[in-house]
Please model this.
Amino acid sequence: MKAACVIGALLLCESAWAAGLADFAWVHNVPVYEVEITGEILHSTESFTQGLLCQGGALYESTGLYGKSTVRRLDPATGEVLQSVALDSDLFGEGIAYSQGELVQLTWLENVGLVWSLPDLARTKNYRYHGEGWGLTADEHSFIMSNGSPWLYRRDFEDFSLLDSVAVTIAGRRVSGLNELEYAVGRVYANFLGVDDIAEIDPATGSVTAVVDAAALRDLVPGDPVNTPLNGIAYDSASGEFFLTGKLWPKIFRARFVTSFGK
Ligand SMILES: [Ca+2]
Model:
């Protein structure tokens, strides 16, 4: 919890938040969910996970760090790495999202979005954007991007140009540090640097409609939320379940978000 306080003070500018987003949600009558684990598969402890995506029956992962960044396709039944493509050593991989038969992979500080064709993961073109790249997902309208700030940015499917933005708030307070993103059934799910919580966000208003307390996963993986943070969320529309993992975690979990009682 102390580590979360440090990150909380850094990212959130809100002392009540420092104990974690889930605790803040409880106090302010925002619904809190727990994670119900339904299965697990292997995950490489070399993977510095920055993005996770379920598409067409496969799992895709973006990994970060200079000289180690990749985009890779995994077997969703086992976690086996079926294909891994290394990025140039001067690129730091970040979030990934799918649109129109291609993946777009953000980079952290390089202002370039890498476009990969599917299923062969061949690099086809680049997009340019301003500022840092953190998380990326897509709904039926556009890409949705984070950059560590409280803001979600909508970007055009055709040229990645900026369309719109909305600030994310919980109980009227802005929430900084949005990281990996996942769109599912009308909501955007976002995890945060340094805490094991996931916000469920209405992308139209930016309001946090619920918080998922993912502490149940921390008991099953080594490290702490600062050094090995939760940072992979992928929604499997076929099963209605999520894949969840983190940086250097040995497992990818299958899970549902369920109502939390009795806290
Ligand atoms: Ca994702």
Confidence is low (pLDDT under 50) at residues 1-16. The chain has one domain: 2-259.
